[in-house]
Amino acid sequence: MGDNGWTHRSACYVLPVREILSAIEERLDTPTSRGLAEAVERAIRDGALAPGTRLPPIRTVATELVLSPTTVSAGWSLLLRAGVIHTDGRRGTTVAVPSPGGRYREALRHRAESDVDLSAGVPDPALLPGLRPALDALTVAGTTDSYADEPVLPELAAVLRADWPYPDGELAMVDGAMDGIELLARTTLRFGDRVVLEHPTFPSLIDLLTSLGIEPIGVRVDERGMNPAELARAMRQPVAAVFLQPRVHNPTGISMTPDRTAELANILEHHTAYIVEDDSAGVVTDLAPRSLGSWIPRRTIHVRSFAKSHGPDLRLAAISAPRELARELFGRRRLGQGSSSPVLQRILYGLLTDPGAVEQTARARAEYARRRRALAEALAAQDIHITGTHGLNVWVPVRDESAAVAHLVRLGIAVAPGSLFEVSAGSRPHIRVTAGLVAADHTGLAARIAEAARR
Ligand SMILES: Cc1ncc(COP(=O)(O)O)c(C=O)c1O
User: Fold this and answer.
1) Which of 3, 13, 126, 221 is least enclosed by beta carbons within 10 angstroms?
2) 218-263 pLDDT, tens per residue?
3) Is any ligand 1 atom within 6 A of the Cβ of residue 282?
4) Residue ranges of the alpha helices (H) in 65-192?
């Protein structure tokens, strides 16, 4: 496995150098490092350069394509960072073989082998609202004609607007937060773009962006949100988008405070970057929704997932975007799958309005808060102090990540290694433990985690 979810096949394809150079040259629009990286990436995507193809040395590429060796070297660096190519000492540079699931999914593949799986950040099925009343309210499934072009059912849009953190923006439903974020990334970002991410952040976001050849810049989060001084520093170079989790950040459980929101808005309003907000915990928390959209509505995209609160299998999230961008995003979506299933949207509408389902969601909220508090207190008794106040996960500092994960695996407990969440290297090691799945014996679990943390 490579750093970016790409695996590197040992076999090399030796294509004639002339053929490789022609494939790149035909796609070379601008003679810059980025232009070159884009050309190689396009040649791979078009199938002209197969995974495993060995690329000619930098000097050959530079001479034949009339570029400076520095430009070629910088282009290769962009491709290396994106995991599109791979350099392997004497064997040279080859086109990497993509691993389709990304680093995060790959890393969690074996979790089912543990007795207790606290690695995946998923909700407790026992705390999800029952579907029966919402299903009973459905009559037939085949009424999409009237709604075929609507990005969201009107009655669902009305419920969402009542609780949306800012009034502007066009609403749509997508098939989960990552579906919306992928749509946005593919529509607005280009290979080689720089984007700011919270450090740490949700690993699938890192996987998605690096797989598209986008360069993530990590900005640390503290107890109040993204660090403003670091953000201002990162914004000194061109940044295409800033991704943040305003409420119940995964993995730390912190939420952006109102004063921090204002500080970040002050910095970002002088730039052109899109602001992409991922409210993944949604209504699984009792904290009010928050957004930079009140300050910068023309560039803010806000995504709220219903996976944690109403069930991952509904695969639904709501997204709002400024009008112009919304037209582009939702227009593009119409060319493919169209809209998210209106049947599922009607079920979600039922779950958001049926008094019994609303009551169940409120009970789940209280129970998740109790479970997280209980584990945090039990860890504090072991002298382990965690950040954040809400959400399904706790972010536990450890002495050595691999040793901690391995120790817990031996005890039959799967947790997520913290390095998966890291955008930049050099932070203190952590593990992420899904406290939301732990109903009892928090003291026993905390003792095991503390043992692992000291290894
Ligand atoms: C921060 C963050 N974003 C996105 C997701 C994925 O959400 P969805 O299942 O709606 O795609 C998660 C799920 O854990 C998450 O924690």
Assistant:
1) 126
2) 999 999 999 999 999 999 999 999 999 999 999 999 999 999 999 9
3) no
4) 69-81, 102-107, 132-136, 154-161, 177-188
Structure tokens given for 206: 């890192």
Residue among 202, 254, 255, 420 to mutate when testing ligand 1 (max atoms within 8 A of CB): 202
Cβ–ligand 1 distance for 121 under 6 Å, the answer yes
The finding on whether 200 has its CB within 6 A of some atom of ligand 1 is no
pLDDT tens track for 68-118:
999 998 888 888 777 788 876 666 788 887 666 666 766 666 566 678 999
Q: Quick check: 120 and 312 in contact, CB under 8 A?
A: no
Q: Tell me how far apart the terminal alpha carbons of the chain are, to the nearest angstrom.
A: 26
How far is the centre of ligand 1, averaged over its atoms, from the C-alpha of 247 (Å)?
12
Is residue 1 domain-resident?
no
Structure tokens at 346: 């009607």
Q: Radius of gyration (Cα) for the chain, nearest Å?
A: 23
Residue 379 and residue 372 in contact, taking contact as beta carbons nearer than 8 Å: no
83 and 19 in one domain? yes
305 touches ligand 1 (CB under 6 Å): yes
How far is the centre of ligand 1, averaged over its atoms, from the C-alpha of 195 (Å)? 19
Residues 113 and 215 in one domain: no
Q: Are residues 107 and 147 in the same domain?
A: no
Domain boundary among 300, 320, 355: 355
| CB of 312 sitting under 6 A from ligand 1 | yes
Number of domains in the chain: 3
What domain range is 86 assigned to? 6-98
Is any atom of ligand 1 closer than 6 Å to the C-beta of 98? Answer: no
Same domain, 141 and 278: yes
Final residue before a domain boundary, out of 98, 117, 152 = 98
